[in-house]
Amino acid sequence: MNEIIDLIATDASAADISDKIKDALYSKATEKIESQRSDVAVSMFDSPTEDEVTAELETSEDE
To answer: What is each CA distance from 22 to 16, 19, 29, 48, 59, in whole angstroms?
Structure first.
């Protein structure tokens, strides 16, 4: 953040300032994604699928 302020204060080019802002936003987005990745993976891939649940129900009904 301080780098962006320094670029603005030193009258850097708009492209340089824009690139720094994009880099900062990309970095924050990456951190958020990485922090949520394991939770999403568990919720998506760790739960039984509908076929597994149906197979379990059929097995218990056969008994």
So the answer is: 10, 5, 10, 40, 55
